[in-house]
Design goal:
It is a single chain. The protein is an alpha/beta fold and 219 residues long. It has a single domain, classed as P-loop containing nucleotide triphosphate hydrolases (Rossmann fold, 3-Layer(aba) Sandwich), CATH 3.40.50.300. Helices cover 41% and strands 16% of the residues. It is built from eight helices and seven strands. Strands 3-2-4-1-5-6-7 form a seven-stranded parallel sheet, sandwiched between helices. Helix 5 links the parallel strand 5 and strand 6. The radius of gyration is 16 Å and the shape is globular. The two termini are 12 Å apart. Bound molecules: adenosine-5'-diphosphate and magnesium ion.
């Protein structure tokens, strides 16, 4: 097997990189695939997420920490490529680190969570430049924005969609809404699936995003 690699990147902290990395990796793993999350953020949030799971509810994907790999992340990740079906790289903010650029060198897909706010959209211009420069080397790299913490009926979300449709990197059809359950998920070290019926809408949108992502990487 050769793993498909998804790098979750943005210029800023707080856009939802770790949340989307973990939910996506967990959702793919629940379908019987072998999934590795590479936590490249020195804050180790993804690693802590997985270690919050109690013994009887183990996080369904493997998680390793690579916080010292710096601009060598692509080399480190390649070592795991034959052992997994999917590798999700949770990156630190690109403004603070050379990691995203390195991760994008080996990625099939750059997934860019973005909040529906002008300040966050402006900041994303930075990561767009990084992605475009890596695309000249890694010609198969695809990029997708994913609107996170969206509130579908608000003017702000609608205006954000309009701006993002002109951004130059396509927007995923699936939006991830602002929901308390995503925060609780981190506390219990799980995906939204473990909350059952009360997480019905969150489960549906994560499944939809996963389907979209799998299609983009050709799986
Ligand atoms: N869709 C969402 N709904 C509610 N809270 C969210 C959502 N996505 C992320 N969060 C919360 O926002 C904060 C930042 O998310 P996080 O995934 O840590 O961002 P990043 O990794 O980009 O810094 C966290 O407290 C997280 O629980
Ligand atoms: Mg993070």
């Amino acid at each position: 097997m050769t793993a498909k690699i998804i790098a979750v990147v943005n210029q800023k902290g707080g856009a939802g990189k770790t949340t989307i990395s973990m939910q996506l990796a967990g959702t793919i793993a629940q379908k019987g695939k072998k999934v590795l999350v590479v936590d490249t953020d020195p804050q180790g949030t993804a690693t802590r997420w997985a270690s919050s799971a109690s013994d009887d509810s183990i996080f369904p994907a493997s998680v390793i920490g690579l916080s010292n790999a710096s601009d060598k992340v692509h080399r480190e990740v390649k070592k795991f490529i034959e052992d997994y079906d999917f590798i999700v790289i949770d990156c630190p903010p690109a403004a603070d680190s050379p990691v995203p650029q390195s991760a994008l060198l080996v990625a099939d897909l750059a997934l860019i969570p973005i909040l529906p706010s002008p300040l966050d959209i402006w900041a994303t211009v930075g990561i767009k430049k990084v992605i475009e420069s890596v695309m000249t080397i890694n010609e198969d790299l695809k990029g997708r924005l994913v609107l996170n913490q969206s509130q579908p009926k608000t003017t702000l979300t609608k205006e954000s969609e309009d701006i993002l449709n002109e951004f130059g990197i396509p927007l995923c059809k699936t939006q991830i809404q602002q929901r308390q359950i995503y925060r609780q998920s981190a506390v219990y070290g799980q995906t939204v699936h473990s909350f059952g019926a009360k997480a019905k809408s969150a489960i549906a949108e994560m499944e939809k995003l996963t389907k979209e992502v799998l299609k983009l990487v050709g799986s």
